[in-house]
Design a protein that fits this description.
By secondary structure, this protein is mostly helical. The protein is globular. Helix 38 packs parallel to helix 40. About 60% of the residues lie in helices and about 5% in strands. It is built from 44 helices and 14 strands.
């Protein structure tokens, strides 16, 4: 029968492509043969009746003769009553379908009159055709989206359960087409730099289709770009051996060429071949430049100089364009940012693919980390979060790859030094970078250096006049010259002074000049270094109303990159509405910046000046400490509330230091977690700032209450640095209770990162300190931590005793969540001792306690522990169910590292159940997400992945995984070293 689609096949003109009218008939063949009227599922009858319907649907409106249909259903051996059966099936279908849909014609049948998008295959063909057009046009993002939508239409086996030779032929063709679409989509994934997330899917696909060389080629490329060169080469070796054994042939030339390019470390493989495809999506043309000032004045020579450089950078390739870097240097307040933003706006048309901007906070105590900036830039350029690597070097390489072929301007404002800037520079011509900093970047290779001095008297007067107004200045020109002279011709000082004057219509220029003439209002060394900036700030501060001045002083006390409106209200001890009015008025004076809706920040020098004002002017002086105490109370009370929502039944919050100032309250977990992760940097800064003060105990408790920041993996490094600072501070203060808690927190951090020996040291010290201080909450939690250390070190009997100690302590304080945690961990100790049945029972006890407390993140830990026990018991399907529950909950609570650990456990179950392909897929996902346990756990994942690959016949790639695992184990002196060496030895002996 010649009625099947030639896959991929274009529909005949007029065949419906898409549409979902209410009540319209819809049909599915990319899975079981099904029919719907609106949302109602229709009965399609026996397998042979469904085979008849499928044959008619796949002819796309063309008539099939009775003979063709008989051949389709039964082939060469039809039953004697085949024709009657076909007529019976057609009659039954006609009763089910709408009138006029199944028609008789010329002794045969046809399906006609279907609505738009009635057949899933037709929709898939339309989407695939659209994807091809989008790809040809260079719009990879849209093409990938269309292919994802097309592939999502498949629902299991094509024509599932439908008999007959025609159905089998179409099943093969459609399955082949689906693989072609998958290969196209994966190819585009790699073109756009999504190699890390593609590895897991390609591993599963190559296991399912071992002889499909294109999939092997894509896997090799994805592994190579993920920094896994040895595995990439091992894939080739496995492929060559498999093809030789199965088919007696060598790999095709394209695969051989890729192997050679990998061996030679061909630079062309290290980045996507067509990164410029992102340009087709308007949503990924960033326009991040801050607004230019309407009254920009002067600097004409600098504007021309910088504009010429940008023009040369953005010219056509035939003009010999280069990647230009211009670095502007000068004292704070000299107008570096204003000039750079003005020039960047003038040059926007020359950089049609976008403009990126970041404040690098270089003059502050904690400059922006280049890796964090690169993450923000990559997201702005359209890179998915899952495709952004972790390390600085990988992010920088991906950033340069994404920019290749684009014309993008990057403005790096307020840089600390050249080392901070280098990873953020584009790597190819057509792009340009403007950098501002307080220091001359003589060590920034190839940069055009611009030293920006104060304005000339004429420029300064012109700027003052534009802000204040010609009419007011014309009659008081000498007074105006006195004003700009007193400002040291510093643009920021002039702007603040002029803005104040413009806002006060009753003042004259002479009044302002008189104020500036008063040396008590400005510093003697007005024109020297930072003193000039301070004099300018003094002018603005002196013109504030009392409430504004108090807000300015107290807000400057808080560390951290910015502050939220609610936190600022705590500092000022005012209602949120009144606080917002004050902060917005300070924004109007340019003494404060609005970082985002509801968030504020100081320029770094303004913050220093505000603190000096607070120390000089605040009365009583005790208000300085009181303001920071209120801020700490606010963070502690709010973080304790978040902790309670995430861990109901955990009595840890009852043992925290009391607070006088209230925090925010949340009704659901998502908003609570949003707050915690948004406030991470200022919260941790507040903790560090409290070292060496009477607030030390509350600061340690805040760190403990915010422990989700380390378990999620989002703020692990900052959290650990803060924990170590608190250990030092509490030790210096000889505060046994606080030090015990700080070291308990640090042991948590070290366990999460897999540094087991160091975790044990801290946990032992924490246990001694907490016991000495009779701190029962800390004693119980640190006993739990010490037990976890024992699990890692296979000291199961000792761990069992510690978990029993923790359980007793938690029960004594009615800490149900703590009890559940220790029970779950005790289950693993019993497993280590070989008591599998008892381990399952204890894990169920822990899960039951968690379940009583609600569907929180910790319920996932209960499912996880039970899944581990069931795996050891050989009850694999039950274990999969528990891990699936855990994975869902961890995902909802943004616990990326726990998601990775759960994928690892899923891989274990699948491997034990004899499903190595699924095991490899989950292991790859665990590698992509990361796991609780750091490098040691990564070694476990790699060892397991190697076992799965070995079972799939991919011996070379398996050995590559084991070698990497061995390297990680040796670095940590792990006990698993011997096991992996044995695996390698057995593999090499085969």
């Amino acid at each position: 029968m010649d009625g099947g689609p030639r896959v991929p096949e274009q529909r005949r003109p007029g065949f419906p492509a898409e549409g979902k009218e209410s009540g319209a008939l819809r049909f599915g063949v990319l899975g079981p043969v099904r029919a719907w009227r609106g949302e109602e599922t229709l009965t399609t009858g026996s397998p042979q009746q469904r085979a008849l319907l499928a044959a008619l649907l796949l002819r796309e409106g063309r008539t099939a003769t009775a003979a063709e249909l008989i051949d389709a259903l039964w082939g060469e051996e039809p039953p004697s009553q085949a024709l009657a059966a076909v007529r019976t099936y057609a009659s039954r279908l006609r009763k089910v379908l709408d009138p006029g849909v199944l028609v008789s014609e010329s002794g045969g049948y046809a399906v006609r009159g279907l609505g738009e998008g009635a057949l899933d295959l037709a929709r898939a063909q339309d989407l695939a055709a659209g994807a091809e057009k989008a790809r040809t046009a260079g719009d990879l993002c849209h093409a990938r989206d269309l292919l994802r939508r097309a592939l999502a239409l498949w629902d299991g086996e094509v024509l599932a359960g439908v008999p007959g030779p025609y159905a089998q032929t179409q099943r093969v063709r459609l399955d082949e087409w689906r693989l072609q679409l998958l290969e196209s989509r994966l190819d585009m994934d790699l073109e756009q730099g999504c190699h890390a997330e593609a590895v897991s899917e390609l591993t599963a696909l190559t296991a399912a289709h071992p002889l499909r060389e294109r999939l092997r080629e894509l896997l090799m490329l994805a592994l190579y770009r993920s920094g896994r060169q040895a595995e990439a080469l091992a894939v080739y070796a496995d492929t060559r051996r498999l093809l030789s054994d199965e088919l007696g042939v060598d790999p095709r030339p394209g695969l051989q060429e890729l192997q050679q390019r990998i061996l030679q470390a061909d630079p062309g493989l290290a980045e996507p071949s067509a990164p410029a495809a992102e340009k087709a999506t308007a949503a990924f043309r960033p326009a991040q430049l801050p607004a230019t000032v309407s009254d920009f004045t002067g600097r004409a020579a600098f504007v021309r100089e910088l504009s010429d450089i940008l023009s040369a950078a953005s010219g056509e390739p035939t003009t010999g364009r280069v990647m230009a870097v211009s670095a502007l240097a000068g004292i704070g307040g000299v107008g570096k940012t204003t000039l750079a933003v003005h020039v960047a706006h003038r040059a926007r048309a020359a950089f049609p693919d976008g403009q990126l901007y970041v404040d690098l906070q270089g003059a502050g105590a904690r400059p922006a980390e280049p890796e964090a900036v690169l993450g923000s830039f990559l997201r702005a350029l359209g890179t998915a979060d899952s495709a952004i690597p972790d390390s600085l070097e990988e992010r920088a390489a991906l950033y340069r790859s994404v920019l290749d072929g684009r014309r993008v301007l990057v403005l790096l404002d307020n840089a600390r030094d050249a080392a901070q800037v280098r990873p953020l520079l584009p790597g190819t011509d057509g792009c340009a970078a403007l950098v501002t900093a307080r220091v001359r970047m003589v060590d920034l290779a190839g940069a055009h250096l611009v030293d920006l001095d104060v304005m000339s008297p004429e420029e300064a007067l012109a700027l003052f006049t534009r802000i204040v107004g010609e009419e007011r200045v014309a009659s008081e020109r000498e007074a105006a010259l006195d004003v700009v002279g007193a400002c040291g011709f510093l643009p920021l000082a002039i702007r603040i002074a002029a803005s104040r004057l413009a806002a006060r219509r009753t003042w004259t220029v002479s009044v302002l000049a008189a104020k500036l003439a008063d040396e008590r209002r400005r510093l003697d060394e007005l024109q020297a270094g930072d003193q000039a900036v301070e004099a300018t700030f003094e002018l603005g501060y002196g013109q504030l109303e009392p409430a504004q001045a108090r807000a300015f002083r107290l807000l400057g006390l808080a560390d951290g990159p910015d502050i939220s409106l609610a936190a600022a209200a705590a500092v000022l001890d005012l209602p949120v509405e009144a606080t917002e009015d004050l902060l917005e008025s300070l924004v109007d004076t340019s003494l404060l910046e609005s970082a985002a809706p509801g968030r504020y920040r100081f320029h770094d020098l303004v913050r220093l000046y505000a603190r000096a004002c607070a120390e000089r002017d605040e009365n009583p002086p005790s208000e300085l400490g009181a303001a920071l105490s209120r801020l700490l109370d606010f963070y502690l009370a709010t973080a304790a509330g978040v902790y309670a929502i995430e861990r109901p039944g955990d009595r840890l919050v009852d043992g925290l230091e009391p607070t006088e100032y209230p925090g925010l309250t949340f009704t659901e977990g998502s908003a609570a977690l949003d707050w915690l992760y948004t406030e991470a940097a200022p919260l941790l800064a507040c903790v560090r700032q409290s070292a060496g003060t009477a607030r030390l105990r509350r600061a340690v408790d805040l760190l403990w209450a915010a422990k989700d920041l380390t378990e999620s993996g989002a703020n692990s490094h900052q959290y650990e640095a803060t924990a170590r600072a608190m250990c030092d501070a509490t030790g210096s203060a000889a505060d046994t209770r606080a030090e015990g808690r700080a070291r308990t927190v640090l042991s948590d951090v070290l366990l999460v990162s897999g540094r087991i020996e160091h975790a044990e040291e801290e946990a032992r010290l924490a246990m001694r300190l907490a016991g000495s201080a009779e701190d029962s909450a800390a004693v119980s939690w640190v006993a739990n931590n010490r037990g976890l250390v024992c699990l890692h070190q296979r000291r199961y009997a000792e761990g069992k005793g510690l978990f029993h100690q923790a359980i007793a302590g938690f029960r004594a304080t009615d800490n149900r969540a703590g009890e559940a945690s220790a029970l779950s961990n005790l289950s693993r100790a019993q497993l280590g001792m070989g008591n599998v049945a008892e381990a399952v029972d204890i894990a169920r006890q822990g899960l039951a306690v968690y379940a009583e407390l609600g569907r929180t993140m910790r319920l996932a830990n209960g499912h996880f522990a039970l899944g581990v026990a069931l795996t050891r018991a050989g009850r694999h399907e039950e274990a999969l169910g528990e891990f699936a529950e855990a994975l869902d909950i961890f995902g909802d609570h943004r616990q990326r590292l726990w998601e990775g650990a759960t994928n690892f456990r899923l891989a274990e179950v699948h491997l034990a159940a004899g499903r190595p392909s699924s095991a490899a897929q989950h292991a790859e996902q665990a590698l992509a997400l990361g796991c609780i346990g750091g490098d040691r756990m990564r070694g476990n994942v790699l060892a397991l992945l190697g076992r799965a690959l070995s079972a799939l016949g991919q011996a070379d790639r398996a050995r590559a995984c084991w070698r990497e695992a061995l390297s990680l184990y040796e670095q940590h002196d792990a006990q698993e070293v011997g096991e992996v060496r044995a695996l390698l030895a057995r593999s090499m002996a085969r």
